[in-house]
Design brief:
By secondary structure, the protein is α/β, with parallel strands linked by helices. It is built from eleven helices and ten strands. The two termini are 12 Å apart.
Amino acid sequence: MSLTRFSINQATLKYSSLPEVIDAVRVIGASSIGVWRETVQELGASEVATRLADAGVRASSLCRGGFFTSPDPTAWRAALDDNRRAIEETAVIGAPALVLVTGGLPEGSRDLVGARQRVRDAIGELEADAQAAGVVLAIEALHPMYAADRAVISTLAQALDIAEQFSPAGVGVVVDTFHVWWDPELATQVARAGRGGRIASYQVCDWLTPIAADALLSRGYPGDGHIDFAAITGQVRDAGYTGDIEVEIFNQEIWDAASTVVARTVAERYESLVFPFL
């Protein structure tokens, strides 16, 4: 029962095909995968749904939508159209949430306020589509070091400020330990998210130092870095979250390892560092 809510995000097994990820998940006795759109676009959403169903595996989320910050009206509308397709894909594969990485500052821009407003406006345009499809748009706050190039939403509070303008049936937030562990307001904001029924996904991995030359690759196995998983998991539990917990790791050494070895390792770390506090 310890792996009932455990999910391996495909990013953790970056070089593995969908069948290989499914096999790795089944070997360890888990039943959920965080799917990436590259796989959906390669195989088609219906084919992904069929393969998951045939294997008895669920989709815990679809990664990723978003990238709403362009000031160019044509590009902004194109992003909305792409996200509508992503919402449809999320529904077809049976995932409850579409994870949104909101986008960084447009090239040459220093207007954070304007970029954040475009994120809010885009979600406002998409919320009805998401609700109609039975999908939650899950806004992911990324660590502030990514504000320039990946996500102008940097804290859980900022994500909630947007989400709370809409129905929780359509817009929620992601709690990703890598991105939020440092925040002195984290406990307050997780509780706030819980009161509103806003936690759409809980993702775990560790923060490694020294930071890699490519900061994206500084994620590690839970227990190898600095994050207090007991404390954060307890906060998420007390907030009422009962969904899947995804292990999502970007790390070259882990990507280069055998998928079954990685799957067993993340399952062991989850069982010892996360599951006891659910």
